[in-house]
Amino acid sequence: MNPSMPIKQNAKFPKQAVAVKIFHGVNIISLILMMSSGLQIYNANPVFGGREGWHFPKVLLLGGWLAGGRDWHFAIMWIYSLNLLGYGLLIFITSDLAPLPINQAGQ
Questions:
Q1: How far is it, in rounded angstroms, from Cα 94 to Cα 86?
Q2: Burial (CB count <10 Å: 0-12, 13-18, 19+), residue 52
Q3: What is the mean pLDDT of the chain?
Q4: Residue 101 has what pLDDT?
Q5: 54, 96 in Cβ contact below 8 A?
Q6: CB 3.0 to 4.6 Å from 87: which of 19, 23, 73, 76, for a disulfide?
Q7: Domain range enclosing 47
Q8: Is residue 56 in a domain?
Q9: Could you tell me if residue 37 is inside a domain?
């Protein structure tokens, strides 16, 4: 690095709207909870090892048993799906809906 070149002190990052930050936060939380309930489903399901297979630690699990894990998994799936729908609508409503330019070089 050249010592005569100034170092940028204030690097600018793209700004995000508050709604986008909220949508991303809900996504992170819901995906972590879905992973936790999915691990509970894995631990409790006899197809994946059941009582004799390798188990994940209880601190990582959500649901307590197979049906409880499935209930949590499907409930959180609705939160994740509705969040995705809301984010898609936000993008659709706030974006520029101009049509894409058509390459007319060949015409």
A1: 12
A2: exposed
A3: 82
A4: 59
A5: no
A6: 23
A7: 18-92
A8: yes
A9: yes
pTM: 0.71
- Taking a C-beta distance cutoff of 8 angstroms, is the pair 57, 36 a contact? no
71 burial via Cβ count (<10 Å: 0-12, 13-18, 19+) = middle
Rg (CA), the chain: 23
Instruction: Take residue 95 and report the two structure tokens written for it.
Output: 């974006």
Q: Tell me, yes or no, whether 102 lies in a domain.
A: no
Burial of 40 (0-12, 13-18, 19+ CB in 10 A): buried
107 domain-assigned: no
Cα(69)–Cα(40) distance, rounded to whole angstroms? 6
Annotate 35-101 with DSSP letters as a single string: HHHHHHHHHH-GGGTTTTS----GGG--SSSHHHHHHHHHHHHHHHHHHHHHHHHHHHHHS--PPPP
Model confidence over 14-42: pLDDT tens digits?
A: 677 788 889 999 999 999 999 999 999 98
Q: Cα–Cα distance between 101 and 28 in angstroms, integer?
A: 35
